[in-house]
Design brief:
By secondary structure, the protein is of the alpha/beta class. Helix content is 46%, strand content 11%. The chain contains twelve helices and ten strands. α2 links the parallel β2 and β3. α9 runs antiparallel to α10 and α11 packs antiparallel against α12. The two termini are 22 Å apart.
């Protein structure tokens, strides 16, 4: 996984200004590979639909993925005939590579893509991008698996699609319903900080982008769609499924190791200007309480077992100190990862040192309780000792949670970061083949459309 640091925390979302003319607000990308038959009817139908229904200026960009037929010539003719159509030529294949290149070069504040077969009903396009234009959401996806969606496709593809999404839910804890529907949109300011973290250049690109966006706390809007399967699709199902499973493993490993700076891809609390000055908004308190209680229950059981074992060889105070020390180290490590979501090794030594301070407070409470019990009774029963320790640990647990949350693992999102300036989109006209230097992929060569461009290096 890439570990490029992103430019910084995202600014608050803004409603894009309404303007029927001027720079395009929406850029719809159509990735194609050897689609000489379907390209022209697709572009003309999409253009007619946008002219009739879309209230903003728009652009349609044909991303030619190293086609070896007459697709480049067809794209060139469409660009010459229709002012809102542009072409983009890549010398290597890969849908993710095409989307990264075009979205990186586009000046439109809302970026979308759809498959050339137009399997998705175009009436869902405006509902898809409207939440991004209004500033409500960061990413939008069409869903074929929503209850109100209407889908026509064979049982084999239906099974594969649902099985794949179950894998994502079980392995990466994804909550979005449909990862691979070829009908998605993203705000450009989000793409600028999110795409450098997305490694895949093929069909897994969509899934990786969505998983990282969701883990970063970005808002994903889902639109139920009407979708009809294309029986002539050239997607290699087995190869694509294998690559996707490899991608799931790679992303899961990167998320578990904490190698991705997802904390930098976040939004300030609230979209209303009056809300942006609110500080110290609690983040995930309910989830943290549940996690802390589970870890605490297991730690208490572990502590009592250790105490009982150490008590055989030493006195009650020594057994208590040893058991509490060992369980405290384990407790801090478990809470660090499971309760407060801190991943990676960075800061682990400091966290353990702070955890030992908290341990000292717990030791004082429990040792004081044992001292009081021994003062009251010269030879207390073992069960009485355990009962006193449980009560003392309950008091120490409440204090431990407060110290962990406020001091050891403070929520970094509660620190009010410097707000970036409101995003504005460049009005420089878009030209095929241009990519900002900071976004250039060393594996991609972008060239103007030429009649005889061929590249058979990738059969996919």
């Amino acid at each position: 996984m890439r570990t490029d640091s992103s430019p910084g925390t995202l600014p608050a979302r803004e409603h894009l200004p309404a303007a029927p003319a001027g720079p395009p607000v929406l850029d719809v990308v159509i990735p194609v590979y050897n689609e000489e038959k379907d390209l022209q009817p697709c572009v003309r139908r999409l253009h007619e639909h946008l002219v009739r229904t879309f209230p903003y200026a728009f652009r349609i960009t044909i991303a030619d993925n190293a086609s070896t037929d007459t697709t480049p010539q067809v794209a060139g003719r469409l660009a010459a005939e229709i002012p809102e159509v542009s072409t983009f030529r890549l010398e290597q294949k890969g849908r993710g590579r095409a989307l990264r290149a075009v979205w990186s070069a586009s000046d439109a504040p809302v970026l979308a893509y759809m498959d050339v077969d137009l399997s998705t009903d175009l009436n869902a396009l405006l509902p898809l991008v409207a939440p991004l234009i209004s500033g409500h959401s960061d990413v939008a996806i069409g869903s074929r698996l929503a209850r109100s969606s209407r889908v026509v496709r064979g049982p084999k593809r239906e099974f594969i699609s649902r099985a794949y999404n179950l894998i994502l839910r079980g392995s990466l804890q994804a909550r979005f319903s449909d990862a691979q529907c070829g009908f998605k949109a993203i705000r450009r300011d989000v793409a600028q900080v999110l795409l450098p973290l997305v490694e895949d250049t093929g069909w897994f690109f969509d899934t990786e982008m969505l998983v990282l966006a969701e883990r970063a706390g970005l808002r994903i809007h889902e639109v139920p769609v009407d979708w009809v399967d294309d029986p002539d699709s050239t997607v290699h199902i087995v190869r694509t499924a294998t690559d996707d499973l490899k991608g799931v493993w790679r992303v899961g490993r990167a998320l578990a190791s904490g190698s991705l700076p997802l904390d930098r891809i976040t939004r300030p609390f609230g979209d209303d200007p009056r809300d942006r000055d609110i500080k110290d908004v609690p983040q995930g308190l309910a989830r943290q309480l549940v996690g802390f209680c589970v870890v605490g229950a297991l730690s208490t059981l572990f502590y009592l077992l250790l105490y009982s074992g150490f008590r055989v060889f030493t006195g009650s105070q020594s057994a208590n100190a040893l058991a509490l020390l060992v369980s405290a180290v384990a407790n801090t490590a478990a809470n660090r990862r499971l309760t407060f979501g801190v991943r990676g090794r960075g800061g682990s030594v400091r966290h353990q040192a702070q955890g030992l301070v908290v341990f000292g407070i717990g030791l004082a409470l429990t040792s004081g309780s044992l001292a009081a019990l021994n003062a009251a009774t010269s030879e207390p029963a073992h069960s009485t000792e355990l009962a006193v320790l449980v009560a003392a640990n309950l008091a120490a647990t409440v204090l431990r949670f407060l110290l962990f949350r406020a001091w050891v693992f403070p929520d970094r999102r509660e620190v009010d970061p410097p707000r970036a300036a409101s995003p504005s989109y460049d009005t420089t006209p878009f030209r095929a083949g241009e990519v900002a230097d900071s976004w250039r992929d060393a594996t991609v060569q972008l060239m103007p459309v030429r009649p005889h461009d061929t590249d058979a290096r990738d059969s996919r």
